[in-house]
Specification:
heterodimer, A: mainly alpha, D-Maltodextrin-Binding Protein, domain 2, 4-stranded mixed sheet, two-stranded antiparallel ribbon, 6 strands, 63% helix, B: 305 residues, Rossmann fold, Alpha-Beta Plaits, 6-stranded mixed sheet, 4-stranded antiparallel sheet, globular
Chain lengths: 461, 305
């Protein structure tokens, strides 16, 4: 056991001192923070040149309403919303008073102004007109143009009104046609109300939508006397927290287990294997390496958990961190490193150089990445048969079971317990098979082994 | 008391018997030479003694302990493999410490300093292995092997890559180990080294033992049928001399093997007719010559090794 620890400590130090480890540990948070900063920085970096939209209004009655709408937009909606609450208040104020909010001058413009240009429809040769407008877009005089059919005002009862035709040469810019769609819809509705003799305000009031506040459940406090009211559900947070756990687990496997390929290859090609095998058995050696890497993974997790807790504490979202899953997380993490680490060790021992290892590692990588492809589905519907079964598939269990446990109301306890039992059995099996491959492969020089050889070594021992 | 005992040991890789029904005893406290050409089964035998691989048949006892199916070698046995096995990114002192601890030596700090000093590597103790020359790496590897004071030291080609000064340092150190009571198994294909250092010789060829015993005894057994000469012959060949059954040409010297009962004086006479005789010596056969005789022309590669 002491010798296993000697190997584990060496392996741990070699991994922790490597540049790759330091880069991952330091760079990951920097990159995360960097992407936030970049997003903030890029937010102000939008094209604010006014965009000109020509409208061929074949209804002859909507243009004025659109003009009013675009003016309202240019005075209110193009500015940054400093804060969600302020913005919400502003929106309310706008809705109530229909007037521009007070603090315009202070706020940064984040969307360009739109400018409308009225184009009179011609009776014949409509294509000619559209071609002329298209050329003006090409020349840059216009950003886009749109044609509104008269049928927009009088849709047949059983079907939708004809579509507005929006022409542009910027297919990815979506803000203008979105706005146009909404503005024409509102203007056409008001027109129809008036024609039907309805007061638009009253109709708007009658049609006031109701919103849903998504809450958790009421509960009693610890003493059992006071009733604790339900809290509002933060839907973003309930997605982000499980996602972070899955990514942390994934990273731990990648940083904690994959260096084993390199180290086994070095021991093999540098003939270190013989010296070490003169002191320990292959199994002791492999276990030492695996334990060292579990140590590495705990180092990573400790750093990130402490970092995460500090951040959560600062933003006052401590209660979102599922601390009750911490024990599960740590066990899943350790077992993942053992299970996948053993696979990496086996591959490293069976290969003779890095290139060979790269291709031999593909199947293992696929198994590791597999949960990453389905985790969103499992998160949204954690209790489907699919989610249950796939989370009991041992290589996927650590990530997927953890997600299902993290999403309230959670899952029956037998599932994670059964999952853990299966994972532990698989890990023992993988370590057993890997140690047999390792024992033969590590001393073999020359050509690397194929999957068939590896299989034979496992069976024969 | 034997440090190593092998009985009827066979190790097969696939259909090839790398070691075939080998029996061998290495007396404690001796320097025992394992000789034989590349691929003859030397390293396989050493690995079996080290319990890195197990034989298909036979039994092996090391330092009085049955080793088969017993896990890793004990801390009393150390092994210097033929090829260097050092982690490239570790510092010299760290790697020696690592190998010492693997052999159960818990606080080797003072010993490491002493050994580095003796090997002239004190200035390199904080350098990484990658920075070392081949000879220096060899010395570090040697320290790694002997640091935990083993009772049985197995050295596989310890002199490769060493200049004469360092080779002498190694020989000195190895003899020190012997004086300290350790048993040394020295595997080499350099016959002259084996001849100089070893008390006993074991020779393996194609997996079979062809020679085993004290060096004196072996040479006596092969008799005084060898004559070592230096003759300026002006191109005349020496193998036509009556009574000479074989010639090994070392360049400056030639060794003649003569039929039993041949009068050396007759050969000398004959040589004098061929050219100027600078040196004439009735010698015991060299290990190399004995080996060639046993192994035949197939072992010629040893000559160039």
């Amino acid at each position: 056991m002491r010798k296993i620890m000697v190997i584990a400590i060496r392996e741990y130090l070699a991994a922790v001192k490597s540049k790759a480890f330091i880069v991952t540990l330091v760079l990951m948070p920097v990159m995360m923070a960097g992407s936030l900063v970049a997003e903030k920085a890029l937010k102000g970096n939008v094209d604010l040149t006014p965009k000109r939209l020509a409208v061929v209004d074949r209804t002859g009655q909507l243009f004025d309403a659109l003009k009013a709408a675009v003016e309202k937009r240019n005075t209110t909606e193009v500015f940054e919303e400093d804060d969600e609450d302020v913005a919400a208040v502003d929106r309310m104020r706008t809705r109530e008073k229909d007037g521009p909010p007070a603090a315009d001058g202070e706020r940064r413009q984040v969307f360009p102004y739109f400018v409308l240009e009225k184009v009179d429809p011609v009776e014949a040769g409509g294509d000619e007109l559209l071609l002329t407008l298209s050329d003006r877009v090409r020349k840059g005089e216009l950003f886009a143009f749109a044609e509104i059919e008269p049928g927009v005002l009088d849709p047949p009862e059983s079907s939708k009104p004809p579509a507005i035709r929006y022409f542009s040469n910027t297919p990815t810019y979506r803000w203008m046609h979105r706005w146009l769609n909404m503005a024409v819809t509102v203007a056409a509705q008001e027109h129809r109300f008036e024609r039907s003799g309805l007061d638009p305000r009253k109709v708007a009031w009658a049609l006031t939508p109701t919103e849903v506040d998504h809450l958790g459940l009421f509960e009693r406090d610890a003493s059992g006397r006071t009733i604790v009211p339900a809290k509002k559900v933060d839907e973003v947070a309930s997605f982000i927290v499980p996602a972070m756990m899955v990514f942390l687990l994934f990273m731990v496997i990648m940083v904690g287990a994959s260096p084993l390929i390199q180290s086994v290859l070095e021991e093999k090609t540098q003939r270190i294997a013989e010296v070490i095998l003169a002191s320990v058995t292959p199994f002791q050696w492999m276990m030492g390496k695996l334990i060292g890497m579990v140590g590495v993974s705990f180092t990573i997790v400790t750093v990130y958990l402490i970092g995460g807790l500090i951040v959560a504490d600062r933003f006052g979202v401590m209660d979102m961190i599922p601390l009750h899953l911490l024990a599960w997380f740590l066990v899943y993490q350790a077992v993942s490193v053992l299970m996948f680490g053993a696979m990496f060790v086996a591959v490293g021992a069976a290969c003779s150089d890095h290139r060979e290892a790269q291709s031999a590692i593909m199947p293992v990588m696929l198994v590791i990445v597999m949960p990453m492809m389905v985790w969103m589905n499992v998160l949204r519907e954690p209790n489907t048969l699919f989610a249950t079964l796939i989370s009991l598939f041992p290589p996927a269990t650590p990530m997927l079971m953890l997600i299902r446990q993290a999403v309230p109301p959670g899952i029956p306890l037998w599932q994670p317990v059964l999952g853990m039992v299966l994972v532990l059995l698989t890990t023992v099996l993988v370590i057993f098979a890997a140690s047999r491959i390792f024992r033969v492969g590590i001393l073999m020089q020359g050509k690397g082994a194929g999957f068939r050889d590896m299989f034979r070594w496992v069976i024969r021992g | 008391m034997f440090a190593v005992e092998l009985q009827n040991v066979t190790k097969r890789f696939g259909t090839l018997a790398a070691v075939d029904d080998l029996s061998l005893t290495v007396p404690a406290g001796s320097v025992y030479g394992f000789i034989g050409p590349n691929g003859s089964g030397k390293t396989t035998t050493l690995r079996m003694i080290m319990r890195i691989i197990y034989p298909n048949h036979g039994s092996i006892r090391v330092l009085g302990e049955d080793v088969i199916g017993k896990g890793a070698a004990t801390d009393r046995v150390a092994y210097l493999p033929e090829e260097r096995g050092l982690y490239r990114t570790m510092k010299v002192r760290e790697i020696i410490r690592f190998y010492a601890e693997l052999k159960g030596y818990r606080n080797p700090r003072a010993d490491i300093a002493r050994w580095l000093e003796r090997m002239g590597l004190s200035d390199w103790s904080d350098k990484k292995v990658t920075a070392l020359s081949k000879g220096m790496a060899q010395k570090v590897q040697f320290i790694c092997t002997v640091i935990a004071r083993p009772e049985l030291v197995i050295l596989d080609e310890p002199f490769t890559g060493l200049d004469p000064v360092n080779a002498a340092l190694f020989i000195d150190t190895i003899l020190d180990l012997k004086r300290g009571g350790a048993t040394v198994i020295l595997s080499t294909h350099d016959m002259s080294v084996a001849e100089k250092m070893c008390d006993s010789i074991f020779m393996i060829f194609k997996g079979k033992k062809v020679l085993d015993g004290p060096l004196d005894g072996i040479q006596d057994a092969y008799g005084t049928d060898t004559i070592r000469v230096r003759v300026e012959t002006n191109g005349h060949r020496l193998d036509g001399i009556p009574g000479v059954t074989g010639v090994v040409d070392f360049g400056r010297y030639q060794e003649l093997r003569v039929r039993d009962g041949t009068d050396p004086q007759a050969i000398l006479e004959h040589l004098m007719k061929l050219g100027t005789v600078r040196h004439f010596e009735q010698a015991r056969p060299s290990l190399h010559d004995i080996f060639i005789r046993i192994a035949g022309p197939e072992a010629q590669e040893v000559q160039h090794a």
